[in-house]
Amino acid sequence: MKQLLVFIKKEFYHVFRDRRTLLILFGLPMVQIILFGYALSSEVKNIGIAVQDNAHDIHSQQIISKIQASPYFKMQDPILNYPDVEKRFKEGSIKCAVIFPVHFGEDLYRTGGAQIQVIADASDPNTATILTNYLNTIINDYQQQLNPNIRTPYKIIPEVRLLYNEEQNGSLNFIPGVIALIFMIVSTALTSVSVVREKEMGTMEILLVSPFKPVMVLMAKAIPYLVLSLVNFVIILLLSVYLLDVEIRGSLLLLFGESIIFIITCLSLGLLISNVTNSQQTAMLISMMGMMLPTLLLTGFMFPIENMPWIFRVVSHILPSRYYYDIVKAVMLKGLGFSYVWKETLILLGMAAGLLTLALKKFKIRLS
Amino acid sequence: MKVLSFILRKEFRQIFRDKIILAMMFLMPTIQLIIMPWAANFEVKNINIAYIDHDHSSYSQKLIHKIASSGYFKIAGSPDSYQKGLQMIEHGDADLVLEIPAHFERNLVREKKQKLNLSVDAINGTKSSLGGSYLVSVIGDFNSNLDINIKSPDNTLNAAQANIKVANSNWYNPRAEYKYYMVPGILVLLLTLIGGFITALNIVREKEIGTIEQINVTPIKKWQFILGKLIPFWIVGMTVFTIGLIVMYIIYGIFPEGSLLTLYLFAAVYLIALLGLGLLISTFADTQLQAMFIAFFFMMIFMLMSGFFTNTESMPNWARQISNFTPVTHFIKVVRLIVLKGSGFNEIKTEFFYLIGFAILLNTLAIFNYRKTS
């Protein structure tokens, strides 16, 4: 036991001597949380739109000014002719074009029906759908305004309640995902180089002849990083609460416990990677490049997992971050207790145990 | 020139010797490009809805039927109390809970209006907000039909009504397939990962192992050393890009609408900018771990703020400035424009100047900083 303590101390010393790495380790996630917390949102607004008004009558003008007033759109210079529409789409300066025919107002009065053409850049299908819906609502509103005496007499009024996020704080949607992503990548990468670095530097030989058991070596390697990651977690939580107005609804203790389990899982994964690779470069390429996109795409915070083909739903079950993301959402944002996340917790515990065992096994092979 | 060709030969040999690195450089992006777009699907469907029907009337049944058949929703269950409905949301089994109050039909006919309670799990960003608005529009639709159902259908008022018809047309991706939008974006991200990271790692590795000292004492000039590092990775990057385009065509049937030449021109300049970034990172870092973390930091910002997922236009102003200052933003935009819409050089030349600017800026900074540290 005493030996282990000495060893851990040595590793700590090793980590803390490297000021630059520490700065990067704490500084970067802070910047990321702030940046993403403020900048990211799934809202669609300020999208470039341009109008070709061939009618120049009061109705077209009124509709145009309604579009102008909407926060969703940002009016660009009017379109000159039809090829101009294409040119503007190809420049990427607009994503939507509205064209009023020559006799728009007249048609509206004489025949009671007039047409507006709406062209959307559907290369980005979701934005196109949302924009088209916005425009339709604006035009419908105007139509209602024109026909004030006609009201639907029977009405079902849906009263929408936004659970857990009444103020529609955009960072709430992204914070749990960003936390899971940062820990998944940072913790894994940290330990992924720990053993392989010794191999590369040749100090592994010294470890081999020392009386330390492999378990001890691995523990001593992982514990300083566990402490660092937890400090990081506290910083991120403080930033989320005090800067981004994310309210922590559930038990802080539970959140901490779950985070420790998740971090241990990631550290174990890193150790495993470290034990099976033989250069730092390879270890990092696997832990960062190999995992970044899958973690980003399959954790569920960017794209709904239910929509994916079955194979991805299966793969997403192997990712520890998926479970942690669910846990953070449930505990931190919804304020749910352990009884809601015990399944995820068990899975994470199982993963941690499995990965550690595997890492240890691979480590032993190296020793012999 | 002769010295440079020697260095190049050495670098290439080094790259091709390490089979794992080689696989990471060529196979990993290829595999990810084949797989990832299937997962990157923003399309919102199968929204799980639970309903509590306290009324059990023909209207409430009709409404539920209408919701179920709208194509957006999947009925997750019909619990008998709001409490149980809320539990379904807490467990993640439902995204929305609709509560139809008792006397729904009676009140509707008598008082001409009736409220419905709709609770949305607002943490699931896109899904729930789209789900909520879909549901509101389904109910709106139901409303207008109600009018006809309850009142006599001989409602002739409509004739005098001013009607505006909206003719919607969707260009460039009329079937609204999300992967057309995602595949070019993912290709750019993969290229960025390869280009930026590997250069950074490679040079820092020489620092860490100490071989850079050896190079420093040889008569090799700095520019020869740097070019010796950049050229092989530039070639690797262009090869990865080409493989990516082939994968895009074979797997997804996407062939660039615009000119391949323009596309390659942008890719060439973009890669130079990216390698400059890698070089710059390597001048700041002393260990590979540091290099990796710095690279990771930039990659996260690149990915999340480049407009790959969200619209850059929707960001707050300051964030848009940051986004504008990342090369990836411009390259993603360009690749999507050329590939999907067939934009020509003239239409996107602003982006070209941005990229050239980044290439010059990043490489100058890197070379400047490089001299200082050694």
| Poorly predicted runs of 5 or more residues of chain A | none
Total number of strands of chain B: 5
Largest interface by Cβ-Cβ < 8 Å: A-B, 118 and 124 residues
Question: What average pLDDT do the residues of chain B reach?
Answer: 83
SSE string of chain B, helices as H and strands as E: HHEHEHEHEHEHHHHHHHH
Radius of gyration of chain A: 28 Å
Descriptive notes:
The complex is a heterodimer of chains A (368) and B (374). Chain A has a 4-stranded mixed beta sheet with strand order 2-1-3-4. In chain A, helix 1 (2-17) crosses helix 10, helix 11 (252-276) packs across helix 12 (280-298) and helix 11 runs antiparallel to helix 14. The two termini of chain A are 24 Å apart. Chain A is an alpha/beta fold and 368 residues long. In chain A, 47% of the residues are buried. Chain A has helices at residues 2-17, 19-39, 58-69, 82-91, 104-110, 125-146, 171-192, 194-201, 204-209, 214-242, 252-276, 280-298, 310-316, 320-333, 338-367, and strands spanning 47-53, 73-75, 96-100, 113-121, 155-163. The longest helix of chain A has 30 residues, at 338-367. Chain A is elongated, with a radius of gyration of 28 Å. In chain A, strand 1 (47-53), helix 3 and strand 2 form a beta-alpha-beta unit. Chain A contains 15 helices and 5 strands. The model of chain A has no long low-confidence stretch (mean pLDDT 84). Chain B has 14 helices and 5 strands. Chain B has helices at residues 2-17, 19-39, 58-68, 82-90, 104-111, 125-150, 178-209, 211-217, 222-252, 260-284, 288-305, 317-324, 327-341, 349-373; strands spanning 47-53, 73-77, 96-100, 113-121, 163-171. The model of chain B is unreliable at 152-160 (pLDDT under 50). Chain B has 374 residues and is an alpha/beta fold. Chain B has a 4-stranded mixed beta sheet, with helices on both faces. In chain B, strand 1 (47-53), helix 3 (58-68) and strand 2 (73-77) form a beta-alpha-beta unit. The longest helix of chain B has 32 residues, at 178-209. In chain B, helix 1 (2-17) packs across helix 9, helix 2 runs antiparallel to helix 7 (178-209) and helix 13 (327-341) runs antiparallel to helix 14 (349-373). At the A-B interface, helix 2, helix 4, strand 4, helix 6 and strand 5 of A face helix 2, helix 4, strand 4, helix 6 and strand 5 of B. Strand 4 (113-121) of chain A pairs parallel with strand 5 (163-171) of chain B, so a sheet runs across the interface.
